[in-house]
Amino acid sequence: MKILLTLLLANTIQFSLVHLANAESTFDKIKSTGVFRIATEGAYSPFTYHDASGALTGFDVDIGREIAQRLNVRPIFIEGKWDGLIAGLDAGRSDAVINQIAITPERKKKYDFSIPYITSQAVLIIHKDNDSIKIFSDLRGKTSAHTLTNNFAQIARHNGAEIIGTNGFSQEIELVSTGRADATINDNLSYLDYKKHKPNAPVKIVASHPNAEQTAILLRKGESELKTAIDQAITDIKTDGTYQRIWVQYFGVNTAE
Q1: Which of the 8 DSSP states describes residue 255?
Q2: Is residue 207 assigned to a domain?
Q3: In what order do the strands lie in the sheet with 203-208?
Q4: Core-most of 4, 118, 231, 241, by most CB within 10 Å?
Q5: Residue 255 banded pLDDT, cuts 50, 70, 90
Protein backbone atom coordinates (compact mmCIF):
# COMPACT_ATOMS: atom_id res chain seq x y z
CA MET A 1 0.00 0.00 0.00
CA LYS A 2 2.82 2.37 0.94
CA ILE A 3 4.60 1.60 -2.34
CA LEU A 4 1.40 2.32 -4.30
CA LEU A 5 0.91 5.66 -2.52
CA THR A 6 4.55 6.57 -3.21
CA LEU A 7 4.13 5.81 -6.90
CA LEU A 8 0.91 7.80 -7.09
CA LEU A 9 2.58 10.75 -5.37
CA ALA A 10 5.56 10.60 -7.73
CA ASN A 11 3.25 10.50 -10.75
CA THR A 12 1.27 13.45 -9.42
CA ILE A 13 4.42 15.50 -8.90
CA GLN A 14 5.68 14.62 -12.38
CA PHE A 15 2.34 15.57 -13.94
CA SER A 16 2.35 18.88 -12.06
CA LEU A 17 5.85 19.70 -13.27
CA VAL A 18 4.93 18.89 -16.87
CA HIS A 19 1.79 20.99 -16.55
CA LEU A 20 3.75 23.94 -15.20
CA ALA A 21 6.28 23.66 -18.03
CA ASN A 22 3.52 23.57 -20.61
CA ALA A 23 1.75 26.48 -18.93
CA GLU A 24 4.73 28.80 -19.32
CA SER A 25 3.51 31.81 -21.23
CA THR A 26 5.11 33.22 -24.36
CA PHE A 27 6.08 36.30 -22.38
CA ASP A 28 7.82 34.10 -19.77
CA LYS A 29 9.79 32.38 -22.54
CA ILE A 30 10.76 35.69 -24.11
CA LYS A 31 12.07 36.95 -20.78
CA SER A 32 13.87 33.72 -19.91
CA THR A 33 15.54 33.32 -23.32
CA GLY A 34 16.13 37.02 -23.87
CA VAL A 35 14.80 36.68 -27.43
CA PHE A 36 11.67 38.10 -29.08
CA ARG A 37 10.94 36.16 -32.29
CA ILE A 38 9.23 38.40 -34.84
CA ALA A 39 7.77 37.05 -38.09
CA THR A 40 7.98 39.45 -41.02
CA GLU A 41 7.98 39.34 -44.79
CA GLY A 42 11.18 41.17 -45.67
CA ALA A 43 9.78 42.01 -49.10
CA TYR A 44 7.27 44.80 -48.48
CA SER A 45 8.87 48.23 -48.76
CA PRO A 46 8.90 50.55 -46.89
CA PHE A 47 7.64 48.44 -43.99
CA THR A 48 9.86 45.36 -44.10
CA TYR A 49 12.49 44.91 -46.81
CA HIS A 50 16.21 44.60 -47.54
CA ASP A 51 18.27 47.69 -48.29
CA ALA A 52 21.06 47.97 -50.86
CA SER A 53 23.49 46.27 -48.48
CA GLY A 54 21.11 43.36 -47.94
CA ALA A 55 20.24 44.32 -44.36
CA LEU A 56 16.66 43.89 -43.16
CA THR A 57 15.08 47.29 -42.54
CA GLY A 58 11.78 49.15 -42.75
CA PHE A 59 9.19 50.91 -40.62
CA ASP A 60 7.77 47.70 -39.12
CA VAL A 61 11.25 46.29 -38.53
CA ASP A 62 12.31 49.41 -36.62
CA ILE A 63 9.10 49.33 -34.57
CA GLY A 64 9.83 45.69 -33.71
CA ARG A 65 13.38 46.52 -32.65
CA GLU A 66 12.19 49.36 -30.44
CA ILE A 67 9.60 47.12 -28.78
CA ALA A 68 12.22 44.46 -28.10
CA GLN A 69 14.53 47.08 -26.59
CA ARG A 70 11.78 48.17 -24.21
CA LEU A 71 11.19 44.54 -23.25
CA ASN A 72 14.95 44.30 -22.55
CA VAL A 73 15.36 41.43 -25.00
CA ARG A 74 16.91 40.86 -28.41
CA PRO A 75 14.73 40.75 -31.53
CA ILE A 76 15.15 37.91 -34.00
CA PHE A 77 13.32 38.39 -37.30
CA ILE A 78 11.99 35.26 -38.95
CA GLU A 79 11.37 36.03 -42.60
CA GLY A 80 8.88 34.26 -44.80
CA LYS A 81 6.23 34.69 -47.45
CA TRP A 82 3.07 36.46 -46.35
CA ASP A 83 0.89 33.36 -46.46
CA GLY A 84 3.21 31.52 -44.06
CA LEU A 85 3.64 34.23 -41.41
CA ILE A 86 0.42 33.53 -39.53
CA ALA A 87 0.84 29.78 -39.92
CA GLY A 88 4.27 30.14 -38.30
CA LEU A 89 2.70 31.97 -35.37
CA ASP A 90 0.15 29.17 -35.01
CA ALA A 91 2.93 26.58 -35.01
CA GLY A 92 4.96 28.43 -32.37
CA ARG A 93 7.82 29.35 -34.70
CA SER A 94 7.40 33.02 -33.81
CA ASP A 95 6.10 35.04 -30.88
CA ALA A 96 4.41 37.77 -32.92
CA VAL A 97 3.87 38.95 -36.48
CA ILE A 98 4.82 42.53 -37.37
CA ASN A 99 4.02 42.94 -41.04
CA GLN A 100 1.25 45.50 -41.61
CA ILE A 101 -1.40 43.14 -40.27
CA ALA A 102 -4.78 44.86 -40.45
CA ILE A 103 -7.21 44.39 -37.58
CA THR A 104 -10.28 42.61 -38.93
CA PRO A 105 -13.26 40.99 -37.19
CA GLU A 106 -12.34 37.60 -38.69
CA ARG A 107 -8.78 37.73 -37.35
CA LYS A 108 -9.93 38.93 -33.92
CA LYS A 109 -11.94 35.71 -33.54
CA LYS A 110 -8.73 33.66 -33.53
CA TYR A 111 -5.95 36.07 -32.57
CA ASP A 112 -5.18 38.95 -30.27
CA PHE A 113 -3.82 42.30 -31.44
CA SER A 114 -1.71 44.95 -29.82
CA ILE A 115 -2.99 48.51 -29.79
CA PRO A 116 -2.71 49.93 -33.34
CA TYR A 117 0.62 51.43 -34.32
CA ILE A 118 -0.34 52.80 -37.74
CA THR A 119 -3.47 53.78 -39.67
CA SER A 120 -3.45 53.74 -43.45
CA GLN A 121 -5.76 53.51 -46.43
CA ALA A 122 -6.14 50.95 -49.19
CA VAL A 123 -5.79 52.36 -52.70
CA LEU A 124 -6.68 50.94 -56.11
CA ILE A 125 -3.64 50.88 -58.41
CA ILE A 126 -3.81 50.35 -62.18
CA HIS A 127 -1.67 50.95 -65.27
CA LYS A 128 -1.43 54.62 -66.18
CA ASP A 129 -3.00 53.97 -69.60
CA ASN A 130 -5.95 51.99 -68.23
CA ASP A 131 -9.21 53.97 -68.50
CA SER A 132 -11.60 51.10 -67.83
CA ILE A 133 -11.14 51.04 -64.03
CA LYS A 134 -12.09 54.16 -62.09
CA ILE A 135 -13.68 52.83 -58.89
CA PHE A 136 -13.45 49.59 -56.89
CA SER A 137 -16.64 48.15 -58.37
CA ASP A 138 -15.02 48.33 -61.83
CA LEU A 139 -12.88 45.37 -60.75
CA ARG A 140 -15.75 42.98 -61.52
CA GLY A 141 -14.51 40.57 -64.17
CA LYS A 142 -10.98 42.01 -64.00
CA THR A 143 -7.78 40.56 -62.52
CA SER A 144 -6.14 41.89 -59.37
CA ALA A 145 -2.67 40.85 -58.14
CA HIS A 146 -2.30 39.95 -54.44
CA THR A 147 -0.83 37.60 -51.91
CA LEU A 148 -3.78 35.28 -51.49
CA THR A 149 -4.76 35.75 -47.85
CA ASN A 150 -4.15 39.43 -47.17
CA ASN A 151 -6.91 41.92 -46.53
CA PHE A 152 -6.41 43.73 -49.83
CA ALA A 153 -7.21 40.53 -51.69
CA GLN A 154 -10.46 40.30 -49.74
CA ILE A 155 -11.41 43.79 -50.91
CA ALA A 156 -10.68 42.79 -54.50
CA ARG A 157 -12.75 39.59 -54.20
CA HIS A 158 -15.62 41.53 -52.65
CA ASN A 159 -15.63 43.72 -55.75
CA GLY A 160 -15.71 40.76 -58.12
CA ALA A 161 -12.06 40.54 -59.19
CA GLU A 162 -10.22 37.36 -60.09
CA ILE A 163 -7.13 37.12 -57.89
CA ILE A 164 -3.69 36.48 -59.37
CA GLY A 165 -1.43 35.12 -56.63
CA THR A 166 1.88 36.86 -55.95
CA ASN A 167 4.79 36.82 -53.53
CA GLY A 168 4.39 40.43 -52.45
CA PHE A 169 4.03 44.10 -53.36
CA SER A 170 6.93 44.32 -55.84
CA GLN A 171 5.54 41.47 -57.93
CA GLU A 172 2.04 42.95 -57.76
CA ILE A 173 3.22 46.28 -59.16
CA GLU A 174 5.29 44.49 -61.81
CA LEU A 175 2.24 42.54 -63.00
CA VAL A 176 0.19 45.71 -63.27
CA SER A 177 3.03 47.62 -64.98
CA THR A 178 3.44 44.91 -67.62
CA GLY A 179 -0.29 44.40 -68.18
CA ARG A 180 -0.39 40.87 -66.78
CA ALA A 181 -2.85 42.05 -64.12
CA ASP A 182 -5.47 44.76 -64.43
CA ALA A 183 -5.00 46.11 -60.94
CA THR A 184 -3.80 45.68 -57.41
CA ILE A 185 -4.99 47.11 -54.11
CA ASN A 186 -2.40 48.07 -51.58
CA ASP A 187 -1.39 50.45 -48.83
CA ASN A 188 -1.17 54.08 -49.91
CA LEU A 189 2.09 54.49 -47.97
CA SER A 190 3.68 51.60 -49.87
CA TYR A 191 2.57 53.12 -53.16
CA LEU A 192 3.96 56.57 -52.30
CA ASP A 193 7.27 55.03 -51.25
CA TYR A 194 7.42 53.02 -54.49
CA LYS A 195 6.75 56.10 -56.65
CA LYS A 196 9.36 58.04 -54.69
CA HIS A 197 11.99 55.54 -55.81
CA LYS A 198 10.50 54.84 -59.25
CA PRO A 199 8.70 58.02 -60.33
CA ASN A 200 8.42 56.84 -63.93
CA ALA A 201 6.69 53.56 -63.13
CA PRO A 202 3.60 53.31 -65.38
CA VAL A 203 1.06 52.99 -62.55
CA LYS A 204 -1.44 55.32 -60.91
CA ILE A 205 -3.98 55.47 -58.09
CA VAL A 206 -7.59 55.85 -59.20
CA ALA A 207 -9.53 55.31 -55.96
CA SER A 208 -9.13 55.12 -52.20
CA HIS A 209 -11.08 52.75 -49.99
CA PRO A 210 -13.50 54.66 -47.73
CA ASN A 211 -12.44 52.80 -44.58
CA ALA A 212 -8.97 53.41 -43.18
CA GLU A 213 -7.28 50.33 -41.72
CA GLN A 214 -5.63 50.05 -38.35
CA THR A 215 -2.49 47.98 -38.27
CA ALA A 216 -1.32 46.16 -35.14
CA ILE A 217 0.96 43.38 -33.96
CA LEU A 218 -0.59 39.93 -34.27
CA LEU A 219 -0.39 37.61 -31.24
CA ARG A 220 -1.71 34.21 -30.30
CA LYS A 221 -4.97 34.30 -28.39
CA GLY A 222 -4.70 34.60 -24.62
CA GLU A 223 -1.17 36.01 -24.39
CA SER A 224 -2.32 38.78 -22.06
CA GLU A 225 1.07 39.45 -20.42
CA LEU A 226 2.79 39.82 -23.77
CA LYS A 227 0.02 42.02 -25.14
CA THR A 228 0.18 44.31 -22.10
CA ALA A 229 3.96 44.63 -22.39
CA ILE A 230 3.82 45.35 -26.14
CA ASP A 231 0.98 47.85 -25.71
CA GLN A 232 3.03 49.71 -23.12
CA ALA A 233 6.09 49.67 -25.38
CA ILE A 234 4.09 51.12 -28.29
CA THR A 235 2.68 53.81 -26.00
CA ASP A 236 6.19 54.70 -24.80
CA ILE A 237 7.53 54.79 -28.37
CA LYS A 238 4.82 57.27 -29.34
CA THR A 239 5.24 59.35 -26.20
CA ASP A 240 9.01 59.79 -26.18
CA GLY A 241 9.37 60.89 -29.82
CA THR A 242 10.77 57.62 -31.16
CA TYR A 243 7.70 56.95 -33.31
CA GLN A 244 7.91 60.37 -34.96
CA ARG A 245 11.60 59.86 -35.72
CA ILE A 246 10.94 56.49 -37.39
CA TRP A 247 7.97 57.91 -39.29
CA VAL A 248 9.99 60.81 -40.70
CA GLN A 249 12.73 58.42 -41.78
CA TYR A 250 10.37 56.42 -43.98
CA PHE A 251 7.43 58.67 -44.84
CA GLY A 252 8.41 62.33 -44.48
CA VAL A 253 7.70 65.09 -42.01
CA ASN A 254 4.04 64.51 -41.11
CA THR A 255 2.83 61.80 -38.78
CA ALA A 256 -0.36 60.22 -40.14
CA GLU A 257 -1.92 57.87 -37.59
Answers
A1: -
A2: yes
A3: 162-165, 143-146, 183-187, 122-127, 203-208
A4: 118
A5: low
